[in-house]
Design goal:
284 residues; mainly beta; Thrombin, subunit H; 2 domains; 9-stranded mixed β-sheet; 8-stranded mixed β-sheet; binds zinc ion
Length: 284
């Protein structure tokens, strides 16, 4: 096989608590964990394969979570989300991605697969750029258990393997700057092909949306950016000094604001940055 036809997909398989994945899972059983929403019309821009290995898209990760619980059809539960590298070893995402969202299912994910760059659309793609890892640290703030809305962030810290590409920078933006700036959210949507193309199983679709803040408080920023299911954990960014700066982690779809008008995310406050710095998951 010619090397030039191989993909640049990176796959990192992380096994938490030494739990082995016992069965393969069809993509149809793994639903996105979020309730994220389009605010009609869908104004997101599709990012095709030609750009996915370039910054900043290469800094994004398509995350697949498996849980120990089983659905009504007897299949192992799982979900999809998005994350992003903040160091070459640390991926920030939404904490709720780690829990099965089905009613009365409370299992926490012990296995996460991380795909970066051009993700294999069909089985048979050869992964030439592969980072392998057998273990990783998973961090969810203790405050999340008491307040799932305000502390919905989590970090996967690789103990082996790393991203050989630029990473995204965190920025505790003043409220005036958040209110004035264009906000950009990029993430993987596993269910919505662009341009009415036919749905392809196991093909995550990468989208970028742009919008404005509609309101904010100490922890949460609301915005009119289109997002969809699977984008939980996506970075919400502004452009500052010509660079992408992450100001929030996308967590919630419309309805969370009780008006059905805004999507929202957890702000990157100084407390969040300090928390990640203290644990060695981030560097400045
Ligand atoms: Zn479940």
């Amino acid at each position: 096989m010619s090397r030039k036809f191989r993909t640049l997909a990176i796959v990192i398989t992380i096994i938490f608590m030494a739990t082995m994945l016992s069965a393969s899972i069809s993509a149809y059983e793994i639903m996105p964990s979020s309730k994220d929403s389009i605010i009609p019309p869908d104004e997101r821009v599709y990012i095709d394969d030609s750009s996915r290995n370039e910054y900043p898209y290469i800094s994004l990760a398509y995350l697949t979570f498996w849980y120990d619980c089983v659905d009504e059809n007897g299949n192992q539960c799982g979900s999809r989300g998005t994350g992003f590298f903040i160091t070459d070893k640390s991926i920030l995402t939404a904490a709720h991605n780690f829990s099965c969202a089905k009613a009365n299912h409370k299992d926490t994910s012990k296995v996460v697969r991380i795909d970066i760059g051009i993700v294999a659309k069909v089985s048979g793609y050869t992964q030439t750029y592969t980072v392998t890892s057998s273990t990783a640290n998973m961090y969810i703030p203790a405050a999340y258990s008491a307040d799932k809305k305000n502390y919905d962030y989590a970090c996967i810290h690789l103990t082996a393997g790393s991203l050989a590409a630029p990473v995204l920078t965190l920025y505790n933006a003043p409220e005036s700057e958040l209110e004035a700036s264009n906000l950009i959210c990029m993430g993987y949507d596993p269910l919505t092909p662009p341009n009415n193309e036919p749905f392809v199983k196991q093909n995550p679709y990468l989208y970028k949306g742009v919008g404005k803040s509609t309101r904010l408080n100490e922890h949460i920023i609301y915005y009119n950016i289109d997002t969809d299911r699977g984008q939980s954990g996506s970075p919400v960014m502004i452009m500052k000094d010509g660079k992408y700066q992450v100001v929030a982690i996308h967590t919630s779809g419309t309805g969370e604001d009780n008006k059905g008008e805004s999507n929202s995310g957890v702000r990157i406050t100084q407390a969040v940055i300090n928390d990640l710095l203290m644990r060695g998951f981030y560097q400045q």
